[in-house]
Design brief:
The complex is a heterodimer of chains A (about 110) and B (about 120). Chain A is mainly β and about 110 residues long. Helices cover about 0% and strands about 55% of the residues of chain A. By secondary structure, chain B is mainly beta. In chain B, the strands form two sheets. In chain B, strands 2, 4, 5, 6, 9, 10 and 11 form a seven-stranded mixed sheet that branches. A four-stranded antiparallel sheet of chain B has the order 1-3-8-7, with no helix packed on it. The chains are: A mainly beta (about 110), B mainly beta (about 120). The interface between A and B is medium-sized, with 25 and 26 residues.
Chain lengths: ~110, ~120
Amino acid sequence: DIQVTQSPSILSASVGDRVTITCRASQNINSWLAWYQQKPGKAPKLLIYKASTLESGVPSRFSGSESGTEFTLTIGSLQPDDSATYYCHQYNSYSSYTFGQGTKLEIK
Amino acid sequence: EVQLVQSGGGLVQPGGFLRLSCTASGFTLPNYYMTWVRQSPGEGLQWVANINPDGTDTFYVNSLRGRFTISRDNTKNSLFLQMNSLRAGDTAVYYCASGGKLGALDLWGQGTEVVVSS
């Protein structure tokens, strides 16, 4: 099975900062990687799919990129509402999905 | 409004069973792969199972294969998860989700809590 390793597990930053979260896949996943935002008590919300495609309605300060098996979620200018836990998700094959361990983003 | 509405969670004793339901409104569920994801208290997301649009192919995380069964009734725009031989470790919030973005999960149910305890 494909593993994804997400880092960091906790991130603290200030409003206006640029932040990055990284996921590394254990093998080639052909850009089939998504990013989700989850707030306490709520279902996850899709932010990015196919590594870099912004989901409709998601603010443009969110972006995704890839380099080989390493994928990055960037928040260009952190806003107070961005406090949440973020997960990556590889979906290279319908037979097996994997989520990253999650990154809890705290606003200073 | 496009949404997935879940039902069927609750408290169950170890060894018991539950059937979760997920009904789509505002869109045609038969067009999509559907997924169940769970989240244990204080933990991250875990993929549970997938089912293809016509229900002929199902896939499971290795640790749950044999105890959990995903199914769908496209005539009722609904998805199900039958959970048998439940254990304390199955205690979690269970989410259904549609893979409307070629597998990426673009619409999620509200989640339903399952507590396995005596």
